[in-house]
Amino acid sequence: MEFFSLTLAQAKKQLELGNITSVQLTESILSRIAAVEPRVKAFITLDRDGALAQAEAADRQRRAGVAGELCGLPLAVKDVLCTSTMRTTCGSKILENFVPPYDATVIKKLKDAGAIIVGKLAMDEFAMGSTCENCAYNVPENPWKPGYVAGGSSGGSAVAMAADESLASLGSDTGGSIRQPASLCGVVGMKPTYGRVSRYGLVAFASSLDQVGPLTKDVRDCALMMNVISGHDQRDATSVDTPVPDYTAALQDGLKGVRIGVPPEYFSQGLDPEVEQVVRTGIEMLREAGAEIKEVSLPHTEYCVAVYYLIAPAEASSNLARYDGVRYGYRAGDADSLVEMYSKTRSRGFGDEVKRRVLIGTYALSAGYYDAYYKKASRVRTLIRDDFKTVFDQCDLVVSPVTPTPAWMIGEKADDPLALYLSDILTISANLAGIPGLSVPAGFSGSGLPIGMQMQAAHFNEEVLLRAAWNLELRAGIKDRKPELG
Amino acid sequence: MEFETVIGLEIHAQMKTRSKIFCGCSTEFGAPPNTHVCPVCLGMPGVLPVLNRQVVENAIKLALATELTINRENRFARKNYFYPDLPKGYQISQFELPIAEHGRVEIEVDGARRWIGITRAHMEEDAGKLIHAEHEPESYVDLNRAGTPLLEIVSEPDLRSPDEAVAYLKKIHAIVRYLDISDGNMQEGSFRCDANISLRPMGRQEFGIRTELKNMNSFKNVQLALEYEVRRQRDVLLDGGEVVQETLLWNPDKNRTEPMRGKEEAHDYRYFPDPDLPPVFIDEEWIERMRASLPELPDPRRQRFMTAFDLPAYDAGILTASRELADYFETACATYDQPKKLSNWIGTELLREYGPERIGECPVRPESLARLLIMIEEGAISGKIAKTVFAAMLESGTEPDVIVKEKGLVQMSDEGALQALVQEIVAVNPAQAQQFRDGKTKVLGFFVGQLMQKTKGQANPQIANKLFRQALAAGPE
Hints:
The complex is a heterodimer of chains A (about 475) and B (about 475). Chain A is α/β, with parallel strands linked by helices. Chain A contains 15 helices and 11 strands. Chain A has a domain at about 5-255: Amidase signature (AS) enzymes. Chain A has an 11-stranded mixed β-sheet with strand order 1-3-2-4-6-5-10-11-9-7-8, with helices on both faces. Chain A is globular, with a radius of gyration of 21 Å. Chain B is α+β, with helices and mostly antiparallel strands. In chain B, about 40% of the residues lie in helices and about 20% in strands. Chain B has helices spanning about 55-65, 160-180, 220-240, 285-290, 300-310, 315-320, 325-335, 340-355, 365-375, 385-395, 400-405, 415-430, 430-435, 445-455, 460-475; strands at about 5-15, 70, 75, 75-80, 90-95, 100-110, 110-125, 130, 140, 150-155, 190-200, 210-215, 245-250, 255-260, 270-275, 280. In chain B, the strands form 4 sheets. A 9-stranded mixed β-sheet of chain B has the order 2-6-7-10-1-11-12-13-14. A 3-stranded antiparallel β-sheet of chain B has the order 5-4-15, with no helix packed on it. In chain B, strands 3-16 form a two-stranded antiparallel ribbon. In chain B, helix 1 crosses helix 4 and helix 12 packs across helix 15 (about 460-475). The longest helix of chain B is centred in the middle third of the chain and has 20 residues, at about 220-240. The chains are: A alpha/beta (about 475), B alpha+beta (about 475). Chains A and B meet through helix 9 of A and loops of B.
């Protein structure tokens, strides 16, 4: 077995036993990247020299007996997280050469734990999209099928897991951007509770919805990553000061006493029969593990897409105002006036989807429209939140599909933004409600594309998600299945 | 036609805090450009604001001092617009739920007192500064000021003259200075004001069309700009014209208002609640803690000065114009318990050199001033010499006793020493002596003056008077 195909936990064990060194592990990962990157295109920026230097330092630390939780383990992160040693492009031309003057809090936590950041992963520009086709650099491809989308916006992060290009990765999830690509690529992805993980240094798309989370090869690795990245941060006023449990302790066999809700609203029209089949089979496995299965209702689900596509663009229109060419990033050099400089900079620096959302958001906040759009959407958001409050009085977690269909071909829906927006329907409610959500591989389509199952729980109840996902993983028996990448 | 002036003021007071409102950078004025900055106030991608609670406390203090009602739930909102001095492309301000609403302060103009309504006060961050270098095509951006905390205080359109507007502005200025929540420096821009002004025919209820005045960075400029605008608008209206609603800049060199250059776009700021900042809840306990920390405010202090020190309203008003001056007076009173005499000295000699806001810079300690007045009272020096001594004290900060001793200014009260001089002066001025004896006693002043000349002002005036009366009554020898 090659080192690169180890899980995070396995590699950590091998390092601790002294069977391998971080340099060997990192070299293995780097050669794997070199081998498969032309096919999957997951990375925007790779730091080979930096990674090897960090690996040498990690080996020295381990010999000195001062190894952190993730000492010497090569990881990669979505290019939306600020890194002081690597450019942070957000998949946008406007930040092509932007090297942040600081590390995001989660990056600092990874570094403090001894992890090695080998590179920055591809994403839809400013995390807006669900296929990575909106990336200004490279469009990652699904490792399971050439020419198929990896999902988005954390597509690179999911691909890097499925293709064994790093041991674990971080993504960000505003409306499903971790869970959806995790599902389409057959890996584990968790969007933690809003406030569980610091957003400081996560380049903002929609501040009230964004959350950083791990994408990993299996559920245990997800728990390990959560242990490291969770916690209150004084630099993020929206992060919550709640104790961080040892998430790996949640990985117990059996689900006795766990009540699982199945909302019919998540199994409605437009759901691919194969997806439904895989998810229903998964639910049976959870029942076999001891869980109690019951039907629950989330009546405002049908409004989620409309609410999301007002609130997220509204916040984005404001969050993206800082890319004005004045202080950093791309600036149009051929302007004769300030207004022209702004206009040319933003016209050329941003891609179509970003512009579309900035326009929608600007409109939704404009005088005369604010009450009808932004304000009304905020009120409906409260109703959606209340739906979950009611449901979590009746059950511990809600299970459903992650996406209505498995992965599709690159270019297939690229010209139909509305169809893409509608495909987010199953994931965005977790962001609107601020609750944790997770995608765990549940099966495959007939054509060999992965299908995930979504699990959602009450605020700060990540443990029940990990426990249920762990049980499904044990029973689904697909953990060792890997895409053929030559 | 008679017109009534209607003015409302928007005051921006920079809060006195060590660090900025949403990051840890220093708020110090005058540092080299872009040295008090960090990723947060530079608006770097991914940064988040964290509220400085000191700003909230300052705002609560102002609210308590001006009878504003404090909102228990506070929200910050984003005001969106593009400008190079605004790093994030939006200013974090307050919109729907400001810190406080519906307050008032009392002002006095020409002896008439009136309450002026305050619509609201809200917290916000300041923008940076643009520097336009002459003969250069580029402009420069200095973001040291970006993120310094401001309190915006908006008055009702209750002010009816430029005098009232200035009186209101000075009242708010005195309050923020008393509260020590702003240094109130208008030159450095830490206390700024914009004015909305319109005219309407006497007796009419509806407001006329208003203009907004900016760039008035002193009390004097506020007065001049408003007076100018009253005249300008009246001329327009009397000509049958209509006032154009626009923003005007006061040009202090040309003494007139001018339309802001460049087209002013109708801004839609697209306010919405800032998702990065949770609501701030202000409970009773917090408010009471702030109330307990309030100093005595200008109006109550003025009242107390009138009753406790038996001072006229005019004196009490002057002495309480700033907290520093009022403290100065009270400290001096503790040493020399003659409030009116102290008030006279402070009102003339001291304030001529140091205004109420600059008392802190005065090298003469209040105890030293009191000592000087005691020396007059004890007859050690005359009132006239005292002025000379005081000038020296202002110069060097030296104690009055030392100056009197060093310069040999001690008053001559020894009758024996003065008697010879008195006799000599009477002898060489027989005509004036005769006038005195003829009943023109006013001529005594001439004789005393002669003696003062010969003694360089050191002769004790009471003794001089006595000696001359004796000598002149005695008749020519």
